[in-house]
């Protein structure tokens, strides 16, 4: 055997690098503390970002619901003049009864059923005290019924749920 290749522990020179971990231990603890602080900070930022995103989703859903409800109300409100016209057609005294009148009547019933299924109800204000929250006065008429009583409905009003969809247009009494 070659004696030059065999070395013992005593032959290996001691380097400064092997002893460095013992002297750098406090430095590692400081680095670990800094890393933990950064990790906590990033975790808190993540929690805030997640909460912000959840709030954004809720606001967005609420906004979309509001838009949908607004568009639904607009559509239902746009059907009301059609119902008014169908009612006027049926109230025309010169119209003979027959298939045309029956068709108009069935069409009106279909529209009324559609509105009822959506929570739309006609207002009945005739004979009640005038309330500007539910009716719009288009004329006054002298009457012995007293002052401020709804005498006629020129156009029906409608509610959807508890809210007004369209005010009634009415003739209101005034004292003689």
Assess the beta-strand content as a share of residues: 15-25%
Q: State the CATH architecture of the largest domain.
A: Alpha-Beta Complex
Coarse shape: elongated
Instruction: Indicate the low-confidence ranges by residue numbers.
Output: none
- Major sheet details: 3 strands, antiparallel
**Oligomeric state of the chains present here:** single chain
CATH fold-level assignment of the largest domain: Hemagglutinin Ectodomain, Chain B
Give the termini separation.
139 Å
* Overall mean pLDDT: 87
How is this structure best described in words?
This protein has 176 residues and is of the alpha+beta class. The protein has two domains: 20-118, Hemagglutinin Ectodomain, Chain B (Alpha-Beta Complex), CATH 3.90.20; 121-176, Nucleotide Exchange Factor Grpe, Chain A, domain 2, CATH 2.30.22. The protein has helices at 16-91, 99-117, and strands at residues 120-122, 135-143, 150-155, 158-160, 163-166, 168-175. Strands 1-4-5 form a three-stranded antiparallel β-sheet. A three-stranded mixed β-sheet has the order 2-6-3, with no helix packed on it. A hairpin with a 2-residue loop joins strand 4 (158-160) and strand 5 (163-166). The longest helix has 76 residues, at 16-91. It is elongated. The chain starts with 15 loop residues before the first helix and ends with a strand. The relative contact order is 0.09.
In short:
With 176 residues, the protein is of the alpha+beta class.
């Amino acid at each position: 055997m070659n004696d030059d290749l065999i070395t013992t522990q005593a032959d290996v020179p001691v380097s400064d690098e092997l002893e460095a971990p013992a002297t750098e231990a406090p430095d590692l603890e400081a680095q670990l503390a800094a890393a933990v602080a950064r990790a906590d900070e990033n975790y808190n930022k993540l929690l805030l970002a997640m909460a912000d995103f959840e709030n954004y989703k809720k606001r967005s859903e609420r906004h979309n619901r509001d838009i949908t409800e607004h568009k639904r109300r607009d559509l239902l409100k746009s059907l009301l003049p059609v119902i008014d016209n169908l009612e006027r057609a049926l109230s025309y005294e010169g119209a003979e009864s027959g298939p045309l009148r029956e068709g108009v009547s069935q069409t009106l019933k279909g529209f009324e059923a559609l509105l009822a299924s959506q929570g739309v109800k006609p207002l009945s204000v005739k004979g009640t005290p005038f309330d500007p929250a539910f009716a719009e006065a288009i004329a006054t008429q002298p009457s012995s019924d007293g002052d401020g009583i709804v005498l006629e409905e020129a156009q029906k009003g409608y509610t959807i749920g508890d809210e007004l969809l369209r005010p009634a247009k009415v003739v209101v009494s005034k004292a003689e």
